Every structure is written in structure tokens, then in C-alpha cells.
Amino acid sequence: MIIDQLSIFLNNAVGRVTEVTTTLGKAGVNLKAFTLSESSDFGILRLITDDNQKAAQVLRDNHFAVNLTKVVYFELGDTPGALSECVQKVSDAGISIEYMYAFSTGNAASVVVRTEDIERCNALIEV
Amino acid sequence: MFFNPEIETMDRAQLRELQSERLVKIVKYTYDNVEFYRKRMDEAGVKPGDIKSIDDISKLPFMQKKDLRDYYPYGTFAAPLKDIVRFHASSGTTGKPIVAGYTRNDLANWAEGVARCLTAYGATKEDILQVSYGYGLFTGGLGAHDGGQLLGATVLPMSSGNTAKQIMLMKDLGSTGLCCTPSYALFLAESIAEDPNTDIDKDLKLKFGAFGAEPWTENMRKELETKLHIKAYDIYGLTEVSGPGVGGECEYQDGTHLWEDMFFPEIIDPVTLQPVEPGQQGELVFTTLLKEGMPVIRYRTRDLTHLIYEKCRCGRTMVRMGRILGRSDDMMIIRGVNVFPSTIESCILEIPEFNGQYFVTVDRVRNVDTFDIDVELRPEYYTDNMEKMLALKARLTMRLVSVLGIKPVIHIVEPNTIARSQGKAKHVLDKRSLDK
Q1: What is the pLDDT of residue B436?
Q2: If you count residue pairs, one on A and one on B, with CB atoms under 8 Å apart, how many are there?
Q3: Helix H or strand E segment including B142
């Protein structure tokens, strides 16, 4: 399914990630997934919470540069080759993946993927 | 319309003759009457007889603000005190102010400079001029006042402050022109907008504003014109040279005409002190061709700008000055290249993704200058795309390389990262100078 993801622009400075998590914690927002990419002098923190609209507002109020991005979220059985099968469908359709992150807990794995054509990507995966 | 058509539209060859004649006179006058000029010219090995035309001006030594301070209060006066009829003084934030003395002729010429500006803005004797520059030692108030009166306009000498009364009299008396600093004009505009009893179109008759005494931008002009429903014009001047009215814009708002029959402008390279090619950017230098009380010869203003010699569409032949881009005091030499913060700033402002806040750090690591610039991202332009962010960084880097000729390292930072200062913005940290 297509869900919202928060994307936050961060300086490469000690403690900056903590400031985000503290701000959200104080606002009572619960984090579901979380990934950090960095270039030499800034970072992009991507996260999914139980209330993305509220989280975005709280972060903006605290002067963070925040963007809400649509991403495709799906679950898989935690078995060898399961992810490959999904990703193959997307690449066969000529859709390139900008980034993705995944984690598995117990018998299931959760995957978040950002591509150019989100609607089509979602349709392909949900088949 | 011209206040002094003969001078303002004079053929440039003829103007040069007039300037030559006046330069020869002022050089002899200052040499004969002021020890400071005599000493400086003797040191430079120049005699008044060496100056035969305006082309010889480059033989003369420069002077600067420090000289006026060192010779405070009367050391650079050329006329005896019995002929001085008024004093003015610069604000002098550090130490002693710069004191200027004016003879009766000086005041008359100054008023003419202002009257030429007012006429160029479209003002006539029918206009009511609200002068909201401060009256007193500051040249703004009395300068605009005298110029307005010379034109024959009706002057309303408000001075600055007391905004409620400013608006009341603006309404009741029907002021058509406003003279003040652009920042006070903005404040007035906001106060008018908040005043429920004043409708800008129904209650006010303002047509134009003469704004100066501090640098302002094209964006500020747009804001003032939109908020006050007027045409906003630049008026330029400085106490050391005279006061407001050294030059002003015309109806085309395409550069500030300098009254170069009285105030001769040059542009020099602030490092080599050599004149630049016509039209090139550099430091503005003035020689007063008619001043009697306190003349200046090749006075370095530290203002960075360029001059436009082409005839203006308004018909004036008088040279035009571009916007003031900054101060030459702020110049850095990085890897042997002259870099002005104002140049960096204008490149950053070209890219809408940045909010214009920036901070330059220069250092020397293993004998090589490092050059880093932090720029703040505008939050609404943030996208969740690393490639786009890196492309944005590359775009600014390439723009600066092409303008400056050296490559800075750009760091895109979050909004509100760069420390804001209350007064004059601080944009540069040169760590090389800290080690000395």
C-alpha cells in the first residue's frame, strides 16, 4: 500500500538525530521505521510514525525542514527469494528504485520502497 | 523635466571641459589653504601646476575617512570659520564623528543637487514634501529641506519618529512626496496598513518617495511601491562629500545619476588603487569640484559599485551609478583572488532554494587557503531526494566558480543554523587573520 513517510533534512552534527527523536517522543508520536542516509555534510532522515501529519507539524514548529513523501509499503513472508520476486516485478516494468529499507521480525518482513512511479509500483507489488 | 537642463543634459565633451576647469581650481585652492593637502601632494611629488585637466586626477593622492578623523575637527577645512555657516556630522559609531563645514555657496550647491533629484522624481512647486529624515547633525533632514524649498515645493519638516502624527499630517495636509530612510518608509507603510482610520488610496495623496542614507535593494523598492502606492526613488549622498543629493534616480529607475559637475566620481580597484575600465565594478571615489568649506580630493568611499556612462533614456548625460554592492573593507583575498561577500551573496540569492543566509569560513591548511560557505536551505524547497540536494549544491558551486574564479566548498545546512546578529550581519570568519 501507499503510505506517507517523513523525510527530514539534518545537519551532520552530533546529537541532531536525538533532537528529532526527543521532539517526537515529547509529542507522543511513536516511531515505526527509521533510516538515515548521509552525504559529506548533511543527512536525510526518513521515518514512518503512527501519526505522520502530527509528527510533521511538531517538527516544523521546531524549525526542522520536513517533507512528506509517498512510499510503497508491503509485507512479505520471511523466506529466501521473497524480496527478490517483488523487486523483479518492479524492475521488469522499467521502474527504478530510489531507495528502500526493510526489516524482519519473526515470520514476516516489512519493506519500504521509494520509486519514481509510486502508483504503478504499488499496483505491481499488490498483484 | 530637469531642474538645471543646461548642466544635466550637457554634452559630455563639454562637461569634461567644465570638470577640468573646476578641478584645476579646487586643487590649487586646497593646496594653498589646507596644510593636509599641501603635505599629501608634496609627499606624492605633485604640484598644483601638474593638474591641467580632469585626466590628471589620477596623479593626485587618495584620502580616506581616517584622514578626516586624524585632522578632526578643522584640519581639512579650506575656508575660514567666518565663512562657514553650518556644521553637520556623521553618526560616528566609533570614536569621534566626521564633522563637515559648509559655506553659503556649499549649501546652495547642495540644495541644487537635491532639487535636481526631486525634479527627476517628477516633483514640482505644486508638491508637498514630507521630510521624515532626522533633523540635526545628520545631513538627511536639512538637506532634503533646503532642496525642497529651492524647488519651491511646500516642505513639511516632520523629522523622524512620532509615526501617528506623521500619518495624521500626511493625511490632513495631503503630502505628495516622502523623504526618509527606506527602513523608516517600510515602518510607516506597515503602520498605515494597520491604521483602521486611514485608507491608502482614499486618504493619502502620496506619489513618490526619495529614499536614501542606507543601502536598499530592488526587492525593498517593490515592497515600498506596492505598500505605499508610490514610485520609490534612490537618493544618494554622504556627509564627507556633501549630504543627500550627490545623485538621484530618474523616472526610469535605471541607475542613480551623479551630479558630476559638482562631485567627480571615479571607480578604482581597491587593491591596486588603479582606475578600472569604464563600467567595471570597484570602489567609488569622489572629488568635490565646487566645495569651499570642506572639500575632498579623491575621497575613498569604500562603497563598491560601477558607473554607466551611456546617455540615459531620460535625456540626462550625467553618469549613472549602479546599486551599491557592498564595502571594499569586507574584501578577502583567497588563493590570490579578490572576493567580496556581496558577490557571494548575490550568487546565493539567484537560487530560490536558499534563503539568503550564509556564512563564509576561510582558513589556511598546509599553506593552502580553504574556502567554505554554509548556506541555509529554505524548508519549503526541501525534497526527499539526495540526488536533487547534491545537484543543488553543485549548481551553487559552479555558479560561484564562474563568477569568482575559485572553487568554494558548499555546505547546505538546515534553516536557522547560521547565527543571526542584531546589528550589522556578520558573514565571514577569516581564521587566517586570527593566527597573526
Answers
A1: 47
A2: 50
A3: helix B139-151
Enter the CATH code of domain B86-328.
3.40.50.12780
B394 close contact with A: CB closer than 8 A: no
- Correct CATH for A71-126 of 3.30.2130.10, 3.30.420.40, 3.40.390.10, 3.90.850.10: 3.30.2130.10
Instruction: Indicate if A71-126 has the same CATH topology as A2-70.
Output: yes
Domain edges within chain A: 2-70, 71-126
Nearest residue to B430 via CA among B327, B334, B297: B334
- Mean pLDDT per 10-residue section of chain B, whose length is 436 residues: 97 97 98 97 97 97 93 96 96 77 98 98 98 94 98 97 94 97 88 92 96 83 93 96 97 97 96 92 96 98 93 96 84 85 86 90 90 93 89 95 93 87 72 67
- For domain A2-70, give its CATH number from 3.60.21.10, 3.30.70.240, 3.30.2130.10, 3.40.50.300: 3.30.2130.10
Q: Is A81 exposed, middle or buried (0-12, 13-18, 19+ CB in 10 A)?
A: exposed
Architecture of domain B331-435: 2-Layer Sandwich (3.30)
B135 vs A102: CA distance, rounded Å: 71
Query: Residue A65: its chain B contacts at CB < 8 A?
Result: 377, 379, 382, 414-415
Segments in chain A below pLDDT 50: none
Contact: A41, B377; criterion CB under 8 Å = no
Do the chains contact at A5 and B415, CB–CB below 8 Å?
Answer: no
Cβ(B143)–Cβ(B243) under 8 Å?
A: yes
B190 touches chain A (CB under 8 A): no
Q: Where are the domains of chain B?
A: 86-328, 331-435
Q: How many CB atoms lie within 10 A of CB B204?
A: 20
For residue B426, the model assigns a pLDDT of 77
In sequence order, the β-bridge partners of residue A102 are: A111
How far apart (Å, rounded) are the C-alpha atoms in residues B384 and A65? 10
Flag if A7 and B415 touch (Cβ within 8 Å).
Answer: no
Of B377, B390, B411, Cβ closest to residue A9? B377
Considering only the C-alpha atoms of chain B, give the largest distance between any 2 of them, rounded to a whole number of Å. Answer: 73
Q: Which of B67, B4, B7 is nearest to B39 (CA)?
A: B67
